[in-house]
């Protein structure tokens, strides 16, 4: 017959279970999570969800949205100045803005995480030299750094993704490096080293669980930055080129129509704002849940 202490230990929730319970209790975070999942599904299935082609003229020029008296139900969000369906362009454009932002953020996080961990667990010249390089690179705003890279390589989707990837990597390296460096200096890590624990054991069992909040915060921040930078470069004409339906490019192409056809400007702008908002809601919820789970 198991004792009461054993039974109580078996029912104690783990750190992950406590974090998930805290996350579920946050209504704003759950709203953001469902919206992010919906955006992800839309991004994956955009080609099948779009009712029309994103680059071909399918209706009258500057047709208002369907809720306007002059609108038509066949074009729910209306058409642009070339007669292209805005709903179709927004759906397919999610792949070029939201989808690419996810890809470039994850790609930069992998490399930044590896370099940051290696640098944080090392010391001496390597760590100091990397620290000075990061200080220099991070003094340049990510968008400005991306503009410099695109201006050198030329406009285009591939060059934009490469530029943003290069701009995000130093942020991950600095955040992970700082978190790991602080963690390594703590007494329990020193005691574990004296007890014979190797670096891999310390990293997997002690350091990574304690820097998850930093990784989560930087990941969601990187996705938000990537969305805004992709849209900003598209708005400036340095990103996806016409007739590609990237949200920032749609906003830039329609800025002159803000008084004549305001829906052509507001709808892409709302798509950018909404995607950044829900990503930040999820990031804040995860940070609070992980901190509460650790406590």
From TrEMBL:
UniProt record similarity statement: Belongs to the binding-protein-dependent transport system permease family. OppBC subfamily.
NCBIfam families tied to this protein: PRK15111.1
Residues annotated as domain ABC transmembrane type-1: 98-283
Transmembrane residue ranges: 28-50, 98-121, 133-154, 160-180, 222-240, 260-282
Pfam families per record: BPD_transp_1, OppC_N
Record key words, sorted: Cell inner membrane, Cell membrane, Membrane, Transmembrane, Transmembrane helix, Transport
GO cellular component, one term: plasma membrane
Database matches in PROSITE patterns: ABC_TM1 (PS50928)
GO biological-process terms attached to the record: transmembrane transport
Species per Swiss-Prot/TrEMBL record: Photobacterium iliopiscarium
PANTHER family reported for this sequence: OLIGOPEPTIDE TRANSPORT SYSTEM PERMEASE PROTEIN APPC, PUTRESCINE EXPORT SYSTEM PERMEASE PROTEIN SAPC
Domain of life: Bacteria
Localization, UniProt: Cell inner membrane; Cell membrane
Membrane topology: Multi-pass membrane protein
Coiled coil spans: none
Protein name: Peptide ABC transporter permease SapC
Chief place where the protein resides: membrane
């Amino acid at each position: 017959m198991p004792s009461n202490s054993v039974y109580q230990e078996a029912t104690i929730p783990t750190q992950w279970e406590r974090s998930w319970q805290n996350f579920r209790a946050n209504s704003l975070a759950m709203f953001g999570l469902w919206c992010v999942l919906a955006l992800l599904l839309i991004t994956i299935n955009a080609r099948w969800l779009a009712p029309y082609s994103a680059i071909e003229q399918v209706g009258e020029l500057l047709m208002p949205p369907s809720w306007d008296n002059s609108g038509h139900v066949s074009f729910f969000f209306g058409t642009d100045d070339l007669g292209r369906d805005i709903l179709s362009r927004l759906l397919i454009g999610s792949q070029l803005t939201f989808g690419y932002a996810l890809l470039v953020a994850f790609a930069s996080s992998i490399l930044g995480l590896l370099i940051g961990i290696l640098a944080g667990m090392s010391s001496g010249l390597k760590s100091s030299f990397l620290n000075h390089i990061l200080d220099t690179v991070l003094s340049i705003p990510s968008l400005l750094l991306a503009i410099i890279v695109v201006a050198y390589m030329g406009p285009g989707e591939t060059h934009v993704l490469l530029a943003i990837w290069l701009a995000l990597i130093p942020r991950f390296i600095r955040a992970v490096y700082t978190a790991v460096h602080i963690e390594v200096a703590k007494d329990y890590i020193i005691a574990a080293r004296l007890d014979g624990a190797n670096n891999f054991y310390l990293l997997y069992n002690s350091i990574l669980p304690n820097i998850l909040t930093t990784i989560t915060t930087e990941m969601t921040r990187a996705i938000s930055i990537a969305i805004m930078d992709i849209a900003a470069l598209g708005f400036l004409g340095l990103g996806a080129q016409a007739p590609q339906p990237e949200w920032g490019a749609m906003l830039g192409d329609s800025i002159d129509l803000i008084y004549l056809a305001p829906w052509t400007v507001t709808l892409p702008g709302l798509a950018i704002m909404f995607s950044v908002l829900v990503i930040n809601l999820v990031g804040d919820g995860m940070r609070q849940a992980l901190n509460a789970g650790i406590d």
